[in-house]
Structure prediction request, 244 residues.
Amino acid sequence: MFSQSFRSWKFDLDVKYGAYSYLCDRPEGPYANLIYDRLVSALAGQLLQRPIPDNFVGGINGDAYQQARTTFSNNFVSRVSIPGYLTGKTITLFSGQVVPVITPQLRGLYAWHTEILVENAIATAPEEEITRLRDALTGFLDRIFFDLRNLGTTSADRALNYAATNAFQTTSVLRQATGQGMQLDTINVERSPFCRMDSDCWDVRLTFFDPDNNRRARRVYRFTIDVSDIMPVTVGDVRSWPIS
Prediction:
């Protein structure tokens, strides 16, 4: 019998500044124990030391250093995705902050280390493209994490956030664009004019430009994401065309 005591969890959108918070209510349903275990694992990963830097100088030998670096790098958690439904309730914390309450769901509940996500996404790329793709994908993720960060409460925000977590699809776009000497310019989300019944589809448009030739046409890559379910899905193929 599962007898673990459940607790509520508080999540900060920006841990450093505490910009916005959610309160994750006690997991419910037949998968409550699995949800709780994943939350505990994510918290444990975030409490680890950050990966040991390459230029670390200390009193440990080379083998011990490599083992320590691998352990921390493989288990450290830098980002989490917490899917759920807004309950309509709010709770006032001891600090006086009023935060909304969500009911967490198992599907889409993930924790990852951004550097490892990037390395896995570009693992199949040719050796000569690795550095370029790593820089491009890291820049794309940082753009969404820091410049375009949002509360994830609207359909458009959810589509944008899913584009960030689905790094493998984004890598194929970045590989084509950067291979042509282009750089990411803008990221836009707009409602898709075509969608299947009872769905909520949004087009994520990545626009690239040539930094060395401002007379060259820009290029748009568009992929459609359906966010009608708790777990968004990509619909159709990635489309691309030049624009002036």
